[in-house]
Design goal:
This protein is α/β, with parallel strands linked by helices. Helix content is 34%, strand content 24%. The structure holds uridine 5'-triphosphate. Residues 11-19, 57, 105, 108-111, 113-114, 131-133, 259 line the site of uridine 5'-triphosphate.
């Protein structure tokens, strides 16, 4: 019997340099996608997948995130006084939606190091990792899809998507082969962070959703800085692969890199088009543009 995945780690200690100057003061996790900060999409995905405890790895200048998932006394009192019931509900819901904890990553030493900062709070149980700037629109929550595979196969699972061509060099890439029973599952034998196109072992690119066993913590403790001189999560998972099974899973849905300016624009247009209250108006507006 596998242990239930109850906790999710959100590494949010990075500097967000790809989105400067917006991220000089505002954490990139707090940039709005239509009307919610991008991190809230990931939190809602977890809650819809049965996760109960959210662990944010933060850094200097990230306190807006803590304020967001808390009560805002002045705002709530003002909305109450003015009888703005729906808005008050919206504001309070964010504060009560999840059990949250924060760990401060004192230096941005890399994604692997950020995940390691959650070791004490996660303890000896499997856990999810979500990179908040990867926003996924899916028929079933993406992290829930990975948890299902974890429960079936009893091994760590990484979300993947197929990338053809040189764009693969921006990702961690899996080596291995597709599973005979389920072609969405990839039996992993290796992985490499940001390979040159000619060296990429497959077209299976890792995106920001993982379900990992707690053994990865021990391995991250001894992982040396790798690509970009950062402690890479991929290197920790590679060490895990020497001891346990690791799977890729081509999730159903579409991922947007909202930590990138162009990715955020794509997500904004597509999420806005799906919003009932203004999708028609927005569609008409887009059609009216002299493109
Ligand atoms: P990114 O490389 O996308 O994030 O890291 P970044 O460094 O914030 O952004 P750019 O590239 O400068 O624009 C992937 C994830 O890992 C987290 C980031 O916050 C992001 O969610 N991260 C990265 C940490 O938490 N700590 C680190 O030391 C590095």
């Amino acid at each position: 019997m596998t242990q239930r995945v109850r906790k999710a780690v959100f590494p949010a200690g990075g500097l967000g340099t790809r989105f400067l100057p917006a991220t000089k003061v505002v954490p990139k996790e707090m940039l709005p996608l239509v009307d919610k900060p991008i991190i809230q999409y990931g939190v809602e995905e977890c809650l819809a997948s049965g996760i109960e405890h959210i662990i944010f790895i933060t850094g200097r200048g990230k306190s807006a995130m803590e304020d967001h998932f808390d009560f805002s006394f002045e705002l709530d009192a003002n909305l109450e006084r003015r009888g703005k019931k729906e808005l008050l509900e919206l504001s309070r819901r964010v504060a009560t939606m999840a059990r949250v904890s924060y760990v401060r990553q004192k230096e941005p030493l890399g994604l692997g190091h950020a995940v390691l900062c959650a070791k004490d709070l996660v303890g000896d149980e499997p856990f999810a990792v979500l990179l908040p700037d990867d926003v996924v629109d899916a028929p079933r929550p993406c992290i829930g899809q990975l948890i299902d595979v974890f429960n079936q196969r009893n091994g760590s699972v990484l979300a993947t998507m197929t990338i053809e061509g040189p764009a693969i060099s921006a990702y961690g890439v899996l080596a291995g082969s597709a599973d005979a029973q389920n072609p969405r599952i990839y039996n992993c034998t290796g992985m490499v962070e940001k390979p040159k196109f000619e060296d990429a072992p497959s077209t299976q690119a890792i995106v920001g959703r993982y379900v990992l066993t707690p053994r990865v913590f021990e391995l991250l403790e001894t992982t040396k800085p790798g690509a970009g001189n950062e402690i890479q999560l991929t290197d920790g998972i590679l060490a895990l692969l020497a001891q346990e099974k690791v799977f890729g899973y081509t999730f159903e849905g579409k991922r947007y890199d909202a930590g990138d300016k162009f990715g955020m624009l794509q997500a904004t247009v597509e999420f806005a088009l799906k919003r009932e209250e203004f999708s028609e108006k927005f569609r008409d507006y887009l059609k009216s543009l002299p493109l």
